[in-house]
Design goal:
- The chain has one domain.
- 76% of the residues lie in helices and 0% in strands.
- It has six helices and no strands.
- Helix 2 packs across helix 4.
- It is elongated, with a radius of gyration of 17 Å.
- The N terminus is likely disordered.
Length: 121
Amino acid sequence: MSHTNGNLGYPGDNIVHRLTSALTLITLGLFFLANTMGIIPWGAWGTIFIIFFRIWPIFIIIGGFQVIFGKNSIASSLLGVFSSLFFVFVLLFAAYLNTSNQDLKHELERNIPIFEDIKSK
């Protein structure tokens, strides 16, 4: 059996890792673009910092699970996807809390049900 590109386990792991990394970078880039275009205020970064300051142990837990499951396993790939999706959610949540753009708020409320629940509280 031939092993290439350091991929010793699950064959799709390299692809999943590359996709989650790429999507995280694209999302971060879109968030910066929205900042520079005035769609999302720069104050959203303070909210992101506060959120991550409160939940940082989650990333240690995810890292521990990745050590347990190994670098090239389906479970490790799923943890990577989960952590990327979580990061995207935090960015969207910070944008929702900090924007004065009502169209953006309504769009987020319409597409992400949890934001509608937050608005009603």
